[in-house]
Amino acid sequence: MDDDFLVIEDDDDLLIEDDEGDAPSVDQHAWKILIVDDEPDVHVATKLALKGFQFDGMSLQFLEAMSGAAARKILEEENDIAIILLDVVMESDDAGLNLVDFIRNELGNSMVRIVLRTGQPGQAPERDVIVRYDINDYKEKTDLSSTKLFTLIYATLRSYRDINIIEASRRGLVRVIDSSAEMFKEQFLDNFASGVLKQVSSLVAGGRDVAFSLEDAAAATHDRKEMTLVAGTGRFAGNVGKSAWEHFPSRVAAAIEEHRERGRGEYGFWVDGSYIGMVVGNSGRASILYLVGEGRPAVIDTHLIQIFVRNVLIAVENLYLRNALIDTQREVVYRLAQAVETRSKETGNHVKRVAELSKLLGVEMGMDEHEAETFRLASPLHDIGKIGIPDAILNKPGKLTPEEFDIMRTHAQLGYDILKHSDRALLQVAASLAYEHHEKWDGSGYPNGLKGNEISLVGRITALADVYDALVSERCYKKPWPEDEVHALLREERGKHFQPELIDVFFKKLPEIRTIYDRYRDTLPVNEDD
């Protein structure tokens, strides 16, 4: 662990952020003191004794109530009172004690410090009151000289300040945990990086007690040669995918490069009022968070940012590894599928078109993003069973005989047998769609004559995607059909070969489907005899 993450420069008299509206906070200008007493002379004497008082560079602001009822109204409006100097006997013998119960139990305010002051100790014995009520001190009015009152207020304010620091730390850690949990739902790096910026912004969101104002933020990767923006807010938002060298200030870029060259480790540092967090992996690649702001957050907020950034950047490294595995898995699937398609004289773009079309229809049929992406990755294996079909049948230019067609139909079972024993989610999906993509909605398909919802959703969708692509594409045994004839056939097979709702979704998404086919158009081989 790099010491830069552990050492923080001390700032004098930094205040602590409190962004929860219903919780008390330290006022930036004065400590609020509420005097609750039915004797006007007590109010006057208290304010006189504390005239000119300061604690942590802030003076006192007095709020006054002559009864418990009046105090309730003030407390319902003011949520950042530090101390209440409370008389016990006012409009009733227990008015002060009732107010304590109201503050702690009805308002739920456990932060304000309550000091009972009584001129009639017999009405509220000290031991009983301390045991039964959540108060912080008990004083007889005759004992409170000017000096003792000064000491009482000073010590009580110190307690209030420290409790606020602890509470701010607790809330900050809750925000870190909640933010991390929210971000880790993301499966893909670009979404994850955007989530990071959203959540880290909430950690340092400006308020009246915050010394740091976050303006913009950026996430970047550095692979030794290039530093690239992967997410951004504010000035960086429109530059994702571009070089970070062009958008980061020279001093920031130089500091990033300096820390990256130190090698593997975690780093956090300030440059010109902005915070940079980095994780450098074994390969020398760095993941970077750049928080552009003004000022410097309180010490507690700096620690929270560092904890958050450290966890985030470690997660980013793990996400890179995960994505690398997914990319490798995707590549293997496509290479295997292309080998099968090449053997059957079909183009590799067939599997890409079917995969993209399958995901598009899957989302429209209710799959979430993760399910649809898994479906897309598994889709190229729908015809993997053709690897066991003889070339003479697979590439026969004319119509198959009944015996040959029976052999061709076995590819669904063969594909299932190849894939069914894997416990990987992607290959389990691939096994289902390989097995069922020749089943029909009316039960007339093969290999098992499944009907309606007995066919898995991936099987139903792959059936439509595979048939559509076969009709609109050139094959060794046929020319492509005109689009209007294909559409007419699909409508005719609605409720027969294909699920009715699926056909409806297909025509709803026709513009996007045409875009897919424009992107993955087949490149036909040149005929040397022409």
TrEMBL record:
* Boundaries of every HD-GYP domain copy: 325-522
Residue numbers carrying 4-aspartylphosphate = D87
Q: Where is the Response regulatory domain?
A: 32-156
Which Gene3D superfamilies does the entry link to?
Answer: 3.40.50.2300, Hypothetical protein af1432
Q: From the UniProt record, which GO molecular function terms apply?
A: cyclic-nucleotide phosphodiesterase activity
Q: Which domain of life is it from?
A: Bacteria
Q: Which UniProt keywords apply?
A: Hydrolase, Phosphoprotein
Kindly list the biological process annotations in GO that this record carries: cyclic nucleotide catabolic process; phosphorelay signal transduction system
Q: Where is the HD domain?
A: 347-471
Q: What's this protein's name? A: Response regulator c-di-GMP phosphodiesterase, RpfG family, contains REC and HD-GYP domains
Q: The organism's lineage?
A: Bacteria, Pseudomonadati, Pseudomonadota, Alphaproteobacteria, Kordiimonadales
